[in-house]
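Saturday, quiet lab. Running sequence design on the C-alpha coordinates for the scaffold JK sent over.
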Protein backbone atom coordinates (compact mmCIF):
# COMPACT_ATOMS: atom_id res chain seq x y z
CA UNK A 1 0.00 0.00 0.00
CA UNK A 2 2.84 2.40 0.84
CA UNK A 3 4.47 1.67 -2.52
CA UNK A 4 1.25 2.50 -4.35
CA UNK A 5 0.86 5.78 -2.50
CA UNK A 6 4.51 6.68 -3.08
CA UNK A 7 4.13 5.88 -6.79
CA UNK A 8 1.00 8.00 -7.02
CA UNK A 9 2.68 10.91 -5.26
CA UNK A 10 5.71 10.63 -7.54
CA UNK A 11 3.54 10.50 -10.67
CA UNK A 12 1.56 13.55 -9.60
CA UNK A 13 4.71 15.48 -8.73
CA UNK A 14 6.31 14.65 -12.07
CA UNK A 15 3.24 15.56 -14.07
CA UNK A 16 2.79 18.81 -12.16
CA UNK A 17 6.42 19.73 -12.76
CA UNK A 18 6.28 19.16 -16.51
CA UNK A 19 5.63 22.30 -18.47
CA UNK A 20 4.29 23.32 -21.87
CA UNK A 21 5.78 21.35 -24.74
CA UNK A 22 7.29 18.71 -22.49
CA UNK A 23 3.92 17.74 -21.02
CA UNK A 24 3.05 15.92 -24.24
CA UNK A 25 6.01 13.57 -23.82
CA UNK A 26 5.11 13.03 -20.19
CA UNK A 27 1.49 12.19 -20.92
CA UNK A 28 2.33 9.75 -23.72
CA UNK A 29 5.03 8.12 -21.62
CA UNK A 30 2.73 7.88 -18.60
CA UNK A 31 0.07 6.13 -20.65
CA UNK A 32 2.47 3.61 -22.13
CA UNK A 33 4.28 3.11 -18.81
CA UNK A 34 1.03 2.70 -16.92
CA UNK A 35 -0.19 0.00 -19.27
CA UNK A 36 3.18 -1.77 -19.21
CA UNK A 37 3.33 -1.57 -15.41
CA UNK A 38 -0.17 -2.95 -15.08
CA UNK A 39 0.58 -5.88 -17.37
CA UNK A 40 3.92 -6.54 -15.64
CA UNK A 41 2.37 -7.01 -12.24
CA UNK A 42 -0.21 -4.41 -11.27
CA UNK A 43 2.34 -1.60 -10.90
CA UNK A 44 0.55 0.90 -13.11
CA UNK A 45 1.40 3.97 -11.03
CA UNK A 46 5.09 3.17 -10.87
CA UNK A 47 5.07 2.47 -14.61
CA UNK A 48 3.25 5.74 -15.27
CA UNK A 49 5.80 7.70 -13.24
CA UNK A 50 8.71 6.05 -15.02
CA UNK A 51 7.02 6.52 -18.40
CA UNK A 52 6.51 10.20 -17.65
CA UNK A 53 10.20 10.65 -16.90
CA UNK A 54 11.25 8.75 -20.03
CA UNK A 55 8.70 10.55 -22.22
CA UNK A 56 9.85 13.91 -20.89
CA UNK A 57 13.47 12.99 -21.63
CA UNK A 58 12.69 11.75 -25.15
CA UNK A 59 10.65 14.88 -25.99
CA UNK A 60 13.45 17.11 -24.75
CA UNK A 61 16.03 15.13 -26.73
CA UNK A 62 13.88 15.28 -29.88
CA UNK A 63 13.38 19.04 -29.53
CA UNK A 64 17.09 19.58 -28.91
CA UNK A 65 17.97 17.47 -31.97
CA UNK A 66 15.60 19.46 -34.21
CA UNK A 67 17.07 22.78 -33.04
CA UNK A 68 20.63 21.79 -33.92
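Result came back. Writing it out in full:
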Amino acid sequence: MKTTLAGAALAIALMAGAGGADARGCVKGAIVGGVAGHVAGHHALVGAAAGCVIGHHMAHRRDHHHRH
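Notes for JK: Residues 25 and 55 are 4 Å apart (CA to CA). The chain has a mean pLDDT of 77. Ask whether to fix the surface positions before the next round.
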